[in-house]
Backbone:
């Protein structure tokens, strides 16, 4: 589904973050990306989202070059990105309202975008219920906990029914119990939908729990794909299981070698 070929990217006159970098991600796979601060984790996510463009090389999704943000890519950010003057329900409907404004033009909204208000409301209500925040529809972001705000941001993205979900450290600001709870929510969601997902994280255990495959990036320049196959450990209910701990240790060793 995603193919990165000979990617080269640098900020201004700085040293390249990616040089001759290649990566292939198949449809329905759950990936996590980990590495030290400044290694290019978020940069890679923004390149895949079409928010940044490579200096050389190419990125394609479903065989189509990524030259701008695509309507079927969902992006969840660390800071939630909620409108403070809008309720939970209004924030969750925001993406669909933007689709409605532009119409199914294939650029801002998919050609098969749902624009009927009843269908839009049904879809938003479904995800709010699924994420356990439907009772908060009339609340404003200032009245919510961090976990509830992040659930609202996730509902807003899932209401668009993306074929690719990109998440940039979505749980890093949350307390440990809420973080684990939302990690479980996303693993269950992936099992249910088989959505292609890529999650950036700085937490080793989170990378192992969420990713069937783990991409380890390095600083200062990434020119090869260091990938850990992690299907046995991903989504494990027992984080003390030998396979889970082995994957965590393997990442620690790789990150130390690349530092």
Residues:
């Amino acid at each position: 589904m995603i193919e990165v070929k000979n990617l080269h990217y640098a900020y201004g006159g700085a040293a390249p973050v990616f040089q001759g970098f290649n990566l292939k991600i198949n449809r329905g796979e759950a990936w996590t990306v980990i590495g030290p601060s400044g290694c290019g984790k978020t940069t890679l996510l923004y390149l895949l989202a079409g928010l940044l463009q490579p200096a050389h090389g190419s990125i394609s999704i479903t065989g189509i070059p990524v030259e701008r943000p695509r309507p079927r890519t969902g992006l969840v950010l660390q800071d939630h990105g909620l409108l403070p003057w809008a309720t939970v329900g209004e924030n969750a409907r925001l993406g669909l309202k933007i689709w409605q404004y532009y119409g199914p033009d294939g650029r801002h909204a998919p050609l098969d975008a749902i624009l009927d208000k009843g269908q839009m409301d049904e879809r938003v209500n479904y995800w709010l219920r699924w994420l356990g925040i439907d009772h908060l529809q009339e609340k404003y972001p200032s009245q919510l906990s961090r976990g509830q705000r992040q659930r609202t941001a996730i509902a807003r993205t899932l209401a668009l029914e993306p074929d690719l979900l990109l998440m940039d450290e979505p749980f890093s600001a949350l307390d440990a119990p809420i973080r684990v709870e939302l990690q479980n929510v996303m693993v269950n969601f992936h099992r249910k939908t088989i959505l292609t997902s890529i999650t950036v994280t700085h937490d080793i255990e989170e990378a192992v729990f969420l990713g069937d495959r783990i991409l380890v990036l390095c600083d200062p320049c990434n020119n090869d794909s260091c990938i850990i196959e992690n299907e046995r450990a991903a989504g494990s209910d027992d984080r003390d299981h030998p396979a889970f701990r082995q994957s965590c240790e393997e990442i620690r060793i790789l990150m130390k070698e690349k530092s």
Q: What stands out?
A: DSSP finds seven helices and ten strands in the chain. The first strand starts at residue 2 and ends at 9.
